[in-house]
Amino acid sequence: MHLDFTDDQRAILDALDSLAKPFESAPIHDAPLAATSAELNSAIVEGGFLDVAQDPDLGTTTAAIVIERLARLPFAVEAGASAMFRPLLSDPSSQPVCLVDERHLARPVRFLGEGATIIVVGDSVRKFGAEAGVVHSEPEALFAYPMAMLSGVPDDAEKLNIPVGEAKVRWQVAIAAEIAGLLAAALKSTCEHTTDRNQFGRPLATFQALRHRLAEAQVRTNGVYWLAMKAASTLDPADAAMAALHAQESAKNCVYDFHQFLGAMGMTLEHPLHLWTYRLKALIGELGGRGAQAQCVADKLWPAR
Amino acid sequence: MDFKWTDEEQAFRERLLAFLEKTLPDDWERFSQHGPASPELTRYAEEFCGKLADEKLLTPHWAKEIGGEGLDPWHQTILAEVMWIAGEPRGGQYMNVNWIGPTLMKYGSALQQEQYLPEIVEGKALWCQGFSEPGSGSDLASLRTRAELVGEEYVVNGQKIWTSYAGLAGTCFLLCRTSDDRKRGITILLIPMDTPGITVRQIPSLIGEGDIHEVFFDDVRVPASARLGDEGQAWEIIGYSLTNERLGIPRYSLARAALDRAVSILEDAGDFDDPGVRIEAGHAAALCEASRMASYAIVSKRAQGEKIGAEASSARFATIMAERRVAEFVSEYLPEALCDAHPYLKMHHQRGIVAGIAAGAAEIQLNIIASDVLGLPREPR
Ligand SMILES: Cc1cc2nc3c(=O)[nH]c(=O)nc-3n(C[C@H](O)[C@H](O)[C@H](O)COP(=O)(O)OP(=O)(O)OC[C@H]3O[C@@H](n4cnc5c(N)ncnc54)[C@H](O)[C@@H]3O)c2cc1C
User: Fold this and answer.
1) Chain A residues near residue B303 by CB distance under 8 angstroms
2) What is the pLDDT of residues B141-164, one digit of tens each?
3) Which parts of the sequence belong to the Acyl-CoA dehydrogenase/oxidase C-terminal domain (chain A) (predicted)?
């Protein structure tokens, strides 16, 4: 076992970091809550960062590394579904790729818009291109992803030759890797604020009530990162379920605290914290949320005898 | 990143498991409830460690020139996991091979090395660690046990507490004060436990019999040659000792094994269909895995020769979270395990309960993470 990056992974991360550099500071914006950038998006697509998993030497571990790193940016970029699913699709499908849980069709879908590639995971895995008629955009949504509702799945959606179990595993890995990056960025932002802001004559970050909860958030963020990387590497169903569970559980534990520690500043759109936390809020419920993930862990680790 | 064990690492684990299979007595699971510091387990550990030594499995991670096999930190981790999952049949001797031996090799005099190392390598020594005092727990540097140099001898007066293994240990690795300088006034003495003036009182505990003690030092006289390193060098020396020990015991391994056992018992009884139980088991498993991976990330750095710092506290806190969730799962859904129905689970519960206290309390780990991993400004003192 060795857990450091390979030279190739390091090179990809360096390239990604230099491409992302101009996008590291948060844009000043009001509604909608999400910050997006067509320029950043096309640079990432054209740079091939979402296709790294097609190279067997890089594989889905490198895809997860890319997803995690991009999630740290204040801009929401559709990377998770693309990086994990595009290698499985025979024809080059257009980004964004949107994952839809057939059991919960009434729920909002991240990045859904006309022309998006939609993958529906239910009793089978199906794909179709989103046309204007089935997409109802939600510009006022309280999430920092662009969100839309899907009004139906066309009967002629193409059935993909992907086992449902594998689709779920890849989705869980994408969730976990994205949450890892979002938690890391939100934690960093919260640490910066509590270090700079003084009350009672000292930085907020010197008060142990905050320090301990921030430290626990670090422990969780680190755990989510490693579970995501391991699951991306093994694509084992139990690993993936544990990664998604720990990610959603940790997101739930941390989001409230991060806002709390910013006081009223955390309620504004002028501070970027929401650009990460209001993405976390969307991911907490994906694929059925923590309860479903925990049951999935139980199913996979201890299959009925 | 490669999350697979190499064939060689896998073979090492299997070799250890085969050794346990052929060596441990049939009633071992019940026997191991005696606790790592009990007289029963201590006696057994001597026999067990002797056999481990014969197979070159007692100190395989020590460098070759000092009697080890020179195996890397991954092997040390595998060894620690296999032993801890099995209920630590090495008893208190795990401390010898993990840090006391290596510390003696680095800082001990020729005489001390000659006196102590052979017994450690043969699996015959038992040490205790005299650090904590009634007034000095987390704030260890405030310790007050005094050692005064009178002629060629140190005269020691004071009290230690929570000292594991003290009842049966041959030697104490003692921290004592030789001057008033908070950290640089602390000195290490290696004191035979049968020296006149030492009184040991066992403290009944939740962990099992014989585990923790009070140790009183009343005009205990030892030759100056019992000092390890220089006067005032203790803080530096234990800093070095900890580099081998920062991660502590791989508690996640036994926690996960206990969880698997609990689930299997629940399944047999038809009690594992309840979604509430399944969800709770899922959470406990995820925490065990997060703890394991946080630890492995550190082992990986060590294997690359990198220095390990505060991130070890993060892995330790992850372990505390896992231990707690598993112990709570068992108490809630298999309370009979805390009686006598399932010795393995009871053994886990007894040992797991101390995860957030022994070897550095949970809140102290959080303090370290806040300052040294997150880089937050320190609390005012
Ligand atoms: C099973 C067992 C075996 C042990 N074996 C040994 C041994 O062999 N040798 C030895 O020397 N010691 C041993 N110890 C002692 C152990 O090292 C101490 O218990 C530990 O360091 C904590 O000290 P304390 O118990 O005095 O707790 P305290 O320091 O009194 O702490 C009590 C609580 O207060 C919290 N606290 C303390 N300071 C702070 C702070 N600054 N900020 C926030 N919270 C704080 C702690 O985190 C803890 O929750 C053992 C303990 C146990 C339980």
Assistant:
1) 2
2) 999 999 999 999 999 999 999 999
3) 173-281
Count CB-CB contacts under 10 A for residue B372.
15
CB B59 within 8 A of CB B97: yes
CB atoms within 10 A of CB A20: 19
Domains of chain B and CATH, by start: 7-125 (1.10.540.10), 128-233 (2.40.110.10), 250-372 (1.20.140.10)
What is the signed CA dihedral for B255, B256, B257, B262, rounded to 10 degrees?
Answer: 90
Domain ranges of chain A: 164-301
Q: Could you tell me which CATH number the domain at A164-301 has?
A: 1.20.140.10
Strands A97-101 and A117-121: parallel
Cβ–Cβ < 8 Å for A251, A293? no
The pLDDT of B59-80, averaged and rounded, is 89
Name the band, by pLDDT with cuts 50, 70 and 90, for residue B244: low
Per-residue model confidence (pLDDT) at position B288: 98
Give which of A152, A150, A145, A149 is closest to A175, Cα–Cα: A145
Q: For residues A115 and B367, give the distance between their C-alpha atoms in angstroms, rounded to a whole number.
A: 50
From residue B126, alpha-carbon distances to A31, B37, B58, B359 in Å are 68, 10, 14, 18
Nearest one of B136, B139, B158, B131 to B147, comparing CA atoms:
B158
What is the token pair recorded at A36?
């997006």
pLDDT of residue B45: 95
- Choosing from B100, B162, B251 the residue with most ligand 1 atoms within 8 A of its CB, the one to mutate for a pocket test is B162
Q: Which residues of B, range 267-306, sit inside 8 Å of A by Cβ?
A: 267, 272, 275, 278-283, 285-287, 289-291, 293-294, 296-297, 300-301, 303-304
For the stretch A206-237, pLDDT in tens is 999 999 999 999 999 999 999 999 999 999 99
pLDDT at B34 exceeding the cut of 90: no
Distance CA B192, CA B43 (A): 19
Predicted confidence (pLDDT) per residue in A141-182, tens digit: 999 999 999 999 999 999 999 999 999 999 999 999 999 999
Using the beta-carbon criterion (under 8 Å), do B379 and A208 form an inter-chain contact?
Answer: yes
User: Is the pLDDT at B348 greater than 80, yes or no?
Assistant: yes
- CB crowding A212-227: b at 16 or more within 10 Å, else e: bbbbbbbbbbbbbbbb
**Against a cut of 0.80, is the pTM above it?**
yes
Interface of B with A in 64-83 (CB under 8 A): 74
**Residues near B145 by beta carbon (within 8 Å), at least 6 away in sequence:** B130, B133, B156, B157, B158, B159, B160, B174, B175, B176, B177, B217
Amino acid, single-letter form, for residue B296: Y
Q: Is residue B34 within 8 Å of residue B42, measured between CB atoms?
A: no
DSSP three-state, residue B11: helix
User: Which of the four pLDDT bands, split at 50, 70 and 90, describes residue B87?
Assistant: very high
Pairwise CA distance, residues A54 & A56, whole Å: 6
Task: Tell me the C-alpha distance between A185 and A74, whole Å.
Answer: 8
Cβ contacts below 8 Å, chain A against chain B, sum to 172
Place of tokens 């030092």: B217
Asked if residue A122 has pLDDT above 90, the reply is yes
Q: Is B367 in the pocket of ligand 1 (CB under 6 A)?
A: yes
In this complex, which of A219, A249, A296 lies closest to B369 when CB atoms are compared?
Answer: A219
Residue A86 forms contact with B (CB below 8 Å)? no
Is A203's CB within 8 Å of B294's CB? Answer: no
Residue A249 with chain B: CB contacts under 8 Å: 283, 286
